[in-house]
């Protein structure tokens, strides 16, 4: 079937609720073990939620406890801090070292 465009899945930002192509959003995943991390590949096992790249959505993530709602659990402030640090590092093209 030449000329048939592949359908790109849409996902919704957990903060602003705007739909966008999955590849334009950042996936945050809670693994079956309970670890919460940024999933740059979009393929990690676990419950995922998506965040757009708008600075206002990143700022609101902590203020509105967006991950608490998405994962239906209390997420510690340290996890929010680490997630935002990972997102900032990914934007600047470097990796976060522990």
Characterization of this structure:
With 98 residues, this protein is of the alpha+beta class. The protein has a single domain, classed as Hypothetical Cytosolic Protein, Chain: A (2-Layer Sandwich). It has 3 helices and 5 strands, in the order E-E-E-E-E-H-H-H. The chain has a 3-stranded antiparallel sheet with strand order 4-3-5. The protein is globular.
Helix-strand topology string: EEEEEHHH
Which of globular, elongated, flat, extended, rod-shaped describes the shape? globular
> What is the CA-atom radius of gyration, in angstroms?
14 Å
Please name the CATH architecture: 2-Layer Sandwich
How many individual helices?
3
Terminus-to-terminus distance:
48 Å
Which residues form runs of ≥5 with pLDDT under 50? none
Domains, number: 1
Q: Which features does this protein show?
A:
two-stranded antiparallel ribbon; 3 helices; Hypothetical Cytosolic Protein, Chain: A; three-stranded antiparallel β-sheet; alpha+beta; 20% strand; 5 strands; 98 residues; globular
Topology:
Layout: E1 10-12, E2 19-21, E3 26-30, E4 36-39, E5 47-51, H1 55-63, H2 66-71, H3 77-92
Antiparallel strand pairs: 1-2, 3-4, 3-5
Task: Summarize this structure briefly.
This protein is 32% helix and 20% strand. It has 98 residues and is an alpha+beta fold.
